[in-house]
Specification:
Elements (H helix, E strand, L loop, with lengths): L1 E2 L9 E2 L5 E2 L8 E3 L2 E3 L2 E5 L2 E6 L4 E10 L8 E8 L2 E5 L3 E2 L5 E6 L5 E8 L8 E11 L8 E2 L16 E3 L3 E5 L3 E5 L1 E3 L5 E5 L5 E4 L4 E5 L4 E11 L2 E12 L11 E3 L2 E4 L5
Parallel strand pairs: 17-24
Antiparallel strand pairs: 1-14, 2-7, 3-6, 4-5, 6-14, 7-13, 7-15, 8-12, 8-14, 9-10, 9-11, 9-13, 16-19, 18-22, 18-26, 20-23, 21-22, 23-24, 25-26
Amino acid sequence: MLYIDELDLSMALQEHGVAQSCKSVDGNPLRMGGRSFDRGVGTHSRSEIAIDLKKSAVRFEATVGTDDEIEGRGTVIFEVWVDGVKAARTDIIENGSDAVDLSVDLQGAEMLVLVVKDAGDGNSWDHADWADARLTLDPAASATPQTIDTTEFAYATLESPEPQLLTPRGVGSVVGGTLELKLAVTGTRPLVYSVRNLPPGLELDPDSGTISGTTEEAGEYEVEVEVSNSLGSARRRMTVSVLDLAYGKPISPEISGPRVVGTTPGRP
């Protein structure tokens, strides 16, 4: 067994800070979802760690996610590339999301690249952890894998052909108010959109990926949105809060969120 944190991490390439052995990118203990990890690598989007396997490894494993130190901020995507082929990929991971276990077969492989991408919303607070990242070595192999000095990104800046979907965690409106939300999506077209549990009065335009309409009933609605193409799908949840306010009661006329505007009905 060879842990990635035992390798020379000075060879890693990343846009902010430096890769840290057994610590977060800010130098704190590795921690995701309230769970602590003794081993691993703390990094930041966008980043790549390139490893010459020397055909000595048979499997790569890690638990990945955003570090708790960023307290609700940051969105990242992890990818594992083997000999120029994408072998594993996570959906967008937000801070507070469950960590994801990765396991990749490396039999006969020569090159491994560990990639962290931003989620299309910039790299602010994208503190990413490769916890318990390790290589299972071939007992018959004599050479030891080592990192390679990387001067430019090979994969971290590539737009993923698989669907990526960003939604706000919550949006708001009032009974009788209008709401419009354009879903932020990337991926190879054509894309197919679907949604579950929209508040009455709202609907999804399947061509543009826009949710709009006039909210009719008060409540908290846990909405699930999905987008798919021939390469896969991405699913996100958000809360739509609809308030029941007395007619004509003075309130702020605008409820805003990412790509969202809600308004109250005017007086007759």
